[in-house]
Amino acid sequence: TNNIIAISNQKGGVGKTTTAVTIATELALKGNSTLIIDCDPQANTTSSFGIISNENNSIYNILTNNNQMNHVIQKTDIKHLSILPSNKDLLAAEIELVDITNRETILKRQIENVKNQYDYIIIDTPPALGLLTLNCLTASKWVIIPMQVEYFALEGLNNLMHTIKLIKQKVNIEMSILGIILTMFDKRNKLSFEIEEQISQYYGEMLLGRIPRSIRLAEAPSHGLPIQEYDNDSSGAKAYREIVNKMINVIDQK
Amino acid sequence: TNNIIAISNQKGGVGKTTTAVTIATELALKGNSTLIIDCDPQANTTSSFGIISNENNSIYNILTNNNQMNHVIQKTDIKHLSILPSNKDLLAAEIELVDITNRETILKRQIENVKNQYDYIIIDTPPALGLLTLNCLTASKWVIIPMQVEYFALEGLNNLMHTIKLIKQKVNIEMSILGIILTMFDKRNKLSFEIEEQISQYYGEMLLGRIPRSIRLAEAPSHGLPIQEYDNDSSGAKAYREIVNKMINVIDQK
Ligand SMILES: Nc1ncnc2c1ncn2[C@@H]1O[C@H](COP(=O)(O)OP(=O)(O)OP(=O)(O)O)[C@@H](O)[C@H]1O
Ligand SMILES: Nc1ncnc2c1ncn2[C@@H]1O[C@H](COP(=O)(O)OP(=O)(O)OP(=O)(O)O)[C@@H](O)[C@H]1O
Ligand SMILES: [Mg+2]
Ligand SMILES: [Mg+2]
Question: Which of A159, A233, B123, B132 suits a disulfide with B37, CB 3.0-4.6 Å?
Answer without folding.
Answer: B123
